[in-house]
Predict the 3D structure of the following.
Amino acid sequence: MTALDHPAHHAENGPTRVPFPVVDEVSRHCLQEEEPETVHIEVHLPGTPDPDRLRAAFHEALRRHPRILMREAKGPWYRRRYEWELTPDPDIEPVSFPPPEPDALKRARDRALSQAPPLATSPPIRLEVVAAEHSPKDGRAPQDGEHPSPTEAQGSVLFLTINHTALDGPACLRVLATAAEIYGGKDNSPAAPPTRAPDQNTPEQPPPPETPSGWSPPARVAKGTPAPSPGNGMLVAELPVPRRPKGSPFTVNDQLMVATALMIAHWNREHGERARPFRITMPVDDRPRDATMPIGNGTRLVEVPFSAAELAEEDWTPEAILGLLRRTSDRTRALKALTRPQLGHGATLLTAPVLPVILRAAVTRALRRAAAPWTSTTLLSNIGRVPYALDFGDAGRAHAVWFSAPARLPRGLTVTTASTAGRLHVALRWSKTLLSHGDGAHLRDLFEHYLHATEHTEEAPQ
């Protein structure tokens, strides 16, 4: 459910208001200053857009998608709903061009992870345009602490920071695509999504009977060498899009899912953790990608399970990986086909407007703490192939797009992927109370290793 699904009403002598959907309300109840709920998108361009033209294009894009122009409405403590208040124009200028400075990309990423756009001002997003510092030549994006030479500096990076209580990444990418179309003057219609190999299972078939039970508390990501400061850390990488054997029933998303599971299983073995079942949260987005796309938090979350025995091997043969890919494909296919509320039926009941929101907030936070041991191991958010050209005319077409999702404990680690121009863009984001940057770099290497291993399954018997 998105903000568009809720009936709007006009407050007395005031602007239009929309009640918070379930996802927004649960997120609003559980906000923490030390780990802001932000989604970050960075779009790398070969050139730099004109400031005045970009601001005008972005403002026009906001007007064409009016549900992004909203702020949290004030209300008495006993109110039974949070409400979004729609505004005709932004309360503040959302587009900025920070002056050039050393480590501009690192600083912009740090701001995206630590400074959430406030909910009290419209829109709850900001767009920063910073000078690019590096053009990757080795297939890997620059990492924190690297200092490329001035001769490598070129182009610009659009940093879109989103308050996740209000909006998600795909919705804001849609708004940015509209801005690109207005700025560049070229059609930006979304490309058709890739198709999956047909399967004999019917769309309404439940998960296969061999699916591991979801009642056992799943494994946690083993603690590394955490930093002394709170908040999130992040590392981005650029990899080849994994190749699939011709006619494979599994998708690139299934390959990413398997690589994520094997990465964490390997990490946990290295840190002496006993084998336990895994559950990996996977957002599913059924919204259209054209201009009619509902703006808000529109994805539903499903959990893909793995048994402890499935991930216990240490030397993965092509045959073993092929078997794991096929089982994962069966599970993701069945889970995507099921119809269920975004956060499950329990969250729908929890957010029913029976009690004042201040009481529901206390109950929600208490239940979240109690349910922490059953929270999934990690989250894999695969945006897939970016469906828009993101052509900004004289500034050029995007050649890399990264996303990252919040990584609060108890998960403490999220993996977000997208592909652009034939390359896979991966962001690992972690809680600094769980992992360090060195830990993140090791996890990235493990992810790359296991993702590459999913390409070599044609040696296995069919």
In short: The two ends are 41 Å apart (CA to CA). The first strand starts at residue 9 and ends at 10. The longest helix spans residues 318-337. DSSP finds nine helices and 15 strands in the chain.
